[in-house]
Amino acid sequence: MDAEFVHRFQFAFTVVYHYLFPQLTMGLALIIVALKAIAIRRDNQLAADAVRFLAKILAVAFAFGVVTGIPLEFQFGTNWARFSELTGSVVGETLAMEGMFAFFLESAFLYFVIAGEKRLGPRGHLIACALLFAGTWLSGFFIVATNAWMQHPVAYSMQNGRYVLTSLGGMLTNPWLVWQYLHTMTGAVVTGAFVVAGLGAYYLLRGHHEAHAKLMVKTGVLFGLAASLAMAFPTGDMHSKMVARYQPVTFAAMEGHFHTERGVAMTLIGQPNMKKLTLDNPIKLPHVLSVLTHARWNSEIKGLVEFKRDRWPDNIPLLYYAYHLMVGLGTIFIGLMALCAWSLRKGKLFARRWLLWPLMLAMPFPFMANTFGWMTAELGRQPWLVYGLLRTADGTSANVSAGNALFTLLGFMGLYALLSLLCFFIMLRIIGRGPTVAAAAAHDAPAPGASHQEAR
Known about the structure:
The chain is mainly alpha-helical. It has one domain. 73% of the residues lie in helices and 7% in strands. The chain has 15 helices and eight strands. It has a two-stranded antiparallel ribbon with strand order 1-2. A two-stranded antiparallel ribbon has the order 3-6. The longest helix has 43 residues. The chain is globular. The protein starts with a helix and ends with a helix.
């Protein structure tokens, strides 16, 4: 086991675990704003109660996201020192802006969303919710901007052997960034929507908090259907076209496309055979990949064999399966949410337990789909840290051995196992109490500044 592999695996483990939390906060933040607006415009107390309940879940996810995000920053120095030295003047810009602007914006207004409702009043509280939403999505923008530069480097020059940013505006308008950011944020909304709808389905199945549960199911289904459709078209479609244009070898590996052809079929199911450079047992849709990629029935798509082996992604089977699992889950999301929306329109969803069960049980799957999506992006970029410029093997910390990295990896695994238990316990308590208890606590709480006697 060499040091590079351990460095890569450690970062992969910590970033995958960390991203379980930001995707939930970014998704819930948008839904909270929508529910708060409904609460004010329609004087809807159920929506106001749902805001308080979901804000607690968001706060827990935010706290654990902060705790698990800090080690990632340190790993740029401990595990990827040469990468940081060579590209720090570029990626450091957006990472610093994420910390200085977005993080402080979301952390400050999270307090007002949780504890400042009475002091701010309804409209002030709505503004706080909107600013919290802006902070979470701005944070996502700067992080994705960093990754987009690594996928498609722009606005840089070489000075004294290092990469230097020549235009911040050029980096923030990177053509890769637009669709990657929209696709990432849409994925976060899918996660938030499925969690909201799934919790509502859980309460309906148990017969608890039914009025609140119906609102949560309705809201989650509507957001979930819109976001799931947007994940496929236009964001997923356009992002795939960006990969085909700027990383054709990655695109071929994702699709399991080994040999150059015209009128290329889209493979639904198949197993990459790296010895024979074929797909075993494929199920294909004729010409579909050519049409989706180039909008032409018989357009040509280059296969992997057209590219030098040293430019192939390191693990093509894992990349292929991650991509197809992401697409497969996204298709299931569209089907489930469309069926739920149709039942909702007919006024039958809340009584159909056979549909509420899959809605509840589907809650973990958007987390998995988003993970597979990021695996596709990062596995596809290999063997490069910065695509076409800096290889992964040249970006590690040369003085950190495999043993040292493995020791800290085991430490992270143990610590994150404990964090998982703690997060699970806290979330169970919040969910067990439900939106009704959250509402009662908000109504009974004294206004800020009230004396102890007034509180009594």
